[in-house]
Task: structure prediction
Amino acid sequence: MSAFAIQPEALRDLVATALGDQARNVTVKHGEVTVEVAAVHYLDVMRKLRDTPGCQFEQLIDLCGVDYSAYQEIGVEGARFVVVSHLLSVSLNQRVRVRALCADDDFPMMASVCELWSSANWYEREAFDLYGIVFEGHTDLRRILTDYGFIGHPFRKDFPLSGHVEMTYDTEQRRVVYQPVTIEPREITPRIIREENYGGLH
Result:
């Protein structure tokens, strides 16, 4: 294992060379390298990052979904759903972040990387469950955190705070049943503390 990690700028240049036109951009921010790719190149890019000499990212340490729908309210354009992966090279002591943009906001889809890293299995299932991102080629893509029959994807920005259905125990049927939510949605207003010297603060 390399005792010292490569400088971020040097890693950025190395990754940019390895990926060529398949990377939309490769940047350094806060000392970390981020690669941005389109969905169509995602699987090939991830394979190159694992196998190319000088990259050798042997481990996928995290993968998650992101919903950028609220960004349109502040004038930011781009894909609504993004898959973000963090890769680690143990042998070269370096890390990289990959942001892959889903092409279709209505039906977000991305290639599965389970064939490259088995650790992606549950991460992709979580992103599917919470964001509705479909990972093409995943052999067991089903919900992992929500219940059977759950409606919707709870980490999407347009998912209601109270959900769509609620679970209750029916004493007559002697079993758990699902029914439409009976809670009226309300606007949550944070409590504002106005007392002077609250908590000993001056």
Remarks:
- Residues 71 and 77 are 7 Å apart (CA to CA).
- The longest strand covers residues 59-67.
- The chain has a mean pLDDT of 88.
